[in-house]
Amino acid sequence: MESQKEARTPGDHVTRTCEKSNCQTRNEEEELEGGEAPTVATLNTEADGANADGLWKLPVESAERRPECSRCRRPLKVCLCPFLPVHPLHISTHLYIIQHPAEENKVLRTVPLLAACLPQEKCKVKIGRRFSEERDPELSAVCQKAGTLILYPGAEAANLEEFILDSPVYPSTIIIIDGTWSQAKDIFYKNSLFRLPRQVQLKTSISSQYVIRMQPTNSCLSTLECAAVALSILEKNNYIQETLLRPLQALCTFQLQHGAQIRLSKEHLLKNGLYPKPMPKNKRKLRKMELLMNSVKI
Ligand SMILES: [Zn+2]
C-alpha cells in the first residue's frame, strides 16, 4: 500500500498512516486537464499480444503520473503557482488536515494548494481513516490539548466566530477532515480521538466557489474554503481568506474554460427537479434525499 505514493518531493509534509485504500480510483474530472487515458487501452490492439511473452509490455499500474509541480502539486502544464503567495502566509494557528485516503489521488484536490500557501510547520496532512494514540502519538497529543478545535458541523458544534470571543484558552490548533460528506462522517464518528477537541462549525454566508465539484448542499464548502474561512477568523485577518481562495478560483476558471461544467449542488438539483439519477430504493438513503430537498440539516 505504501507504493501508491511514489514520488513525494523532499519538501512534502504529508504523513501517511493509512491502511488499505482505494487510492487508485481515477474519476472523470481528470480528463479535463488534457490527461491521456491510461495506456491499458492498447492491450487489445495487438493480435499476438495474447501470449505471456507480451506481458512485459504492460504498463506498470499508475506509475506514469504526469510530471507535477513540486510546489502546488498540479500537473506542470496547469501549474497554479502564479496564484499562490510568494511567501507562505504568517499564521500562528496550527492546521491539521485529516485526509481520507480516497482524496489523495484526486486530481482536482484542494489540499495541496492550501498546504502550498502555508508554512510547512503550520499545516500538516495526515492520511488515513483510523487514528489512535498508538498509531499517531503526535496527533493524539494534539487532540488532547486545551487549545485544539475540530471543525465538524452538528448540534454539538459551537459557532467558531462566537466561540473565540469567550473561550478561556485561545485556540492554537484546528483540525479539518478532508473527504466526501460520508467519508468525513465515518472518520469523525469512528475515531474517539476526534471527539476530544472542542467541536466547532462555520456559520458563513459564503457559498462554495469550488463549482467544478459537486457539493451536497448549497452551503457546503471545500476543505480549502473551510480552512480559509476558519483561519481568517482565528487569525482575525481577512487577507488570509482572500489569499487562500485565489488559487481555487484560478483552478475553477481554468477548468471551466476547458470544458468543465458548473456542478450545482445535489440540494439545488433535487429542489429544481434536475437531479439526473433515479431516486434511491434504499429507505435510509431516500429519507436523506428528502431531508436535503427540504433543507433539513443532515
Ligand atoms: Zn506549481
UniProtKB/TrEMBL annotation:
Keywords tagged on the record: S-adenosyl-L-methionine, Transferase, tRNA processing
Occurrences of domain DTW (ranges): 65-260
Protein's recorded name: tRNA-uridine aminocarboxypropyltransferase
Statement: the UniProt record of this protein carries the keyword Ribonucleoprotein: no
Bilayer-crossing regions: none
Pfam families assigned: DTW (PF03942)
EC number, UniProt record: 2.5.1.25
GO biological process: tRNA processing
SMART domains named among the record's database cross-references: DTW
Gene label: DTWD2
Reactions catalysed, as given in the entry: a uridine in tRNA + S-adenosyl-L-methionine = a 3-[(3S)-3-amino-3-carboxypropyl]uridine in tRNA + S-methyl-5'-thioadenosine + H(+)
Biased composition (Basic and acidic residues): 1-19
GO molecular function: tRNA-uridine aminocarboxypropyltransferase activity
